[in-house]
Structures are given as structure tokens and as C-alpha cells.
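Shipment paperwork, digital attachment
Item: protein structure file
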Amino acid sequence: MARTVLVTGGNRGIGLAIAQAFAKQGDRVAVTHRGGGVPGAGAAEPGLGAGGAGHQGSLFGVRADVTDAASIDAAFAAVEAELGPVEVLVANAGMTADTLLLRMSEEQFTDVVDTNLTGAFRVAKRASGKMLRAKWGRMIFISSVVGLAGGAGQVNYAASKAGLVGVARSITRELGSRNITANVVAPGFIDTDMTAGLSGDRKAEILKSIPAGRMASPDEVAAVVTWLASDSAGYVSGAVIPVDGGLGMGH
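Attachment content:
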């Protein structure tokens, strides 16, 4: 059965792979972006502002800023009008501002938390109303191995990604009786444009720390996300599933 899926930050990397995986299995898929357009979807139409949307091919692109509740509301309204109520939410939008603790400004900390953690809260809150009415829903939060194991220079990022576990587990306790699940996927090192920019020495150092001896492809993360959204995973909720080749060892 086809579902309406919304992937925040779905215009590149892991988010785009997730969106494409849902589209490939026949779901109606919307992705948010901050104005850069979406491969395989129309770019947001000029002049439409935070809720501007475009549609082409298998993905429906909608402009949104997860730090702005009004922008999120407009984006959801556009998706609902085009594809129907959001049944599967993938909270993937995120940012980094890495620096050592002593050098980290309050703004660097709060900006990352506002995007990665509070942004996930905002989209989950907006999605929950229609899911409750339908008595069915799937929420999947994209965290990180860093949120479970920590990372030097990433106090802000690790805190935001760890917080998603509490969000998902609290939602599970609140909404679980209405056939709504909330889970966390914690990727490790994934072969994306970001990791492609690492030096050869740094890549070799990283690979030594991963029991699997390699990075994952974005498609491997997407496969776990689509499974969590399926009927087969209806009894899985409040879980944290690592996709990290053994790096985090289930912290």
C-alpha cells in the first residue's frame, strides 16, 4: 500500500537516498530543502517563500526551514494538498558546527540543537495530528553514532543527536497505542560528498576503527529506514538501530 512520505533535508546525501528508496517502492514522496532544489524534483518556484514547492518526476520538493514553525506548517500544507496527509515522517535535516568545547560559542551550540533536535520536534508535532486521526503513523529520526558514542569537537552535534532518542521514546509512550511508531536510526561513516572530502590518511584512520572495514552506502541506511516504515516493523518502536559497521557497538 502506497503511503505519503516526508523526508526533511531530503535534497542530498542520506536524505535523498531515503527519499529515492521510498519512491522506488511506489510511495508518494515529498522532500524539504532550503532553496537549493532537489535532484529528480522541481526546484521551489521563485517568489513562493518558505512554503514554495515544485513537482517533477517521482519526488515533490518543498522549501522549508526546520527552525521556523511557520515555514514547517506551510510546507506540510503544501504536501497535504499535493500528496495527502503525511503518514511516514523521516526527520533527517541537520547541520554541524564543529569546534572544541573551549572555543564553541553559545550560538554554535544553540544553532545546531535548534536545527537537529528542536527541528525534529517541530516536524514531529506537525505530523502527529493527522497520524492520530488516521490511527497510523511512522516517525523515523536520523541520529548518528556520534550521538551515542560522543565525538571530540562535537559537543553540540552529539547532544542534538542523542536528544533524538529521548524524543522518539517519549513519542512511543504517548502515541504507541494509536498504531504510531517512533524509532531512531544512527548511521556511522557513510560514503557521501562530506566524507569524500576527507584526506586519504583520515579515511584510513576511520576505516581502522570500523569492524566492517568500510564505509556504508547511503542506500544501506535507506534500507533500514524503509523497513522501519513498513507494516513488518509495526511492533518495533522506541528502538535505536545503528547502521555503522559495528563502530558504536550498540551504545
